[in-house]
Design a protein that fits this description.
There is one protein chain. The protein is an alpha/beta fold. The chain has eight helices and five strands, in the order βαβαααβαβααβα. It binds adenosine-5'-diphosphate, shikimate-3-phosphate (S3P) and magnesium ion (MG). Its cofactor is Mg(2+). It is an enzyme of class 2 (transferase).
């Protein structure tokens, strides 16, 4: 594990970053921060309202600022980020500085099942869900791979199994 002992969870919307991050913090002695929660608390506004009032670029700037702040003070923390975080070069660098970056993957049809009916994710609003998921994954996959130290295909895995896979990677020397 890198010397700050942080784990950074990345991946597409619905991949389980927030769920896995929360599970780890509840079952292992690590703190937990979700950058979406961190941004919402800082702005006193939901992600949906931030997008509606100020647009995507403003939100992306807040994401970069959040990572910069977390790089200053975080240790022994699981950090789940938003699905778009790895798209900016600077964010990929900041995440590598922050900790071991884990890319959580799930099949597109499973993501669609999980995200169907969601109204909190502006990047998916008002479009054919399956098509939108596919299109965004195609745009983002290279950034996810470039950002990550390890990829975990979570299909059929329990929370415990996902955590064990992360721990195995770190214990095997990780990064
Ligand atoms: N491994 C999993 N198996 C089944 N459902 C899951 C799993 N991970 C997440 N979910 C469900 O998918 C939805 C999105 O999960 P979330 O953790 O918010 O994803 P992310 O933060 O990656 O967007 C939630 O309803 C959550 O309960
Ligand atoms: O993929 C994206 O661009 C986004 C993902 C969301 O987080 P989750 O991946 O946790 O849903 C949230 O940051 C915002 O709605 C934008
Ligand atoms: Mg999340």
């Amino acid at each position: 594990m890198n010397n700050k002992g942080n784990i950074v969870l990345i991946g597409f919307m619905g991949a389980g970053k927030t769920t896995v991050g929360r599970w780890i913090s509840q079952n292992v002695n690590m703190k937990y921060i979700d950058t979406d929660d961190y941004i919402e608390a800082g702005q006193n506004m939901t992600i949906k309202d931030i997008f509606a009032n100020y647009g995507e670029e403003f939100f992306r700037d807040l994401e970069t600022k959040a990572l910069e702040e977390l790089c200053e003070g975080c240790s022994q923390t699981v950090i789940s980020v938003g699905g778009g975080m790895p798209v900016r070069d600077i964010n990929r660098k900041l995440m590598k500085k922050l900790g071991t970056v884990v890319y959580l993957k799930a099949a597109e049809e499973e993501l669609a099942r999980r995200l169907d009916g969601d109204d909190k994710r502006p990047m998916l609003a008002g479009q054919d869900l399956r098509k939108r998921i596919h299109e965004l994954i195609m745009q983002r996959e290279d950034a996810y791979l470039d950002a990550s130290d390890v990829v975990i295909n979570t299909m059929g895995m329990s929370m415990n199994g996902i955590y064990n896979a992360i721990e195995d990677y770190i214990n095997d020397g990780g990064r």
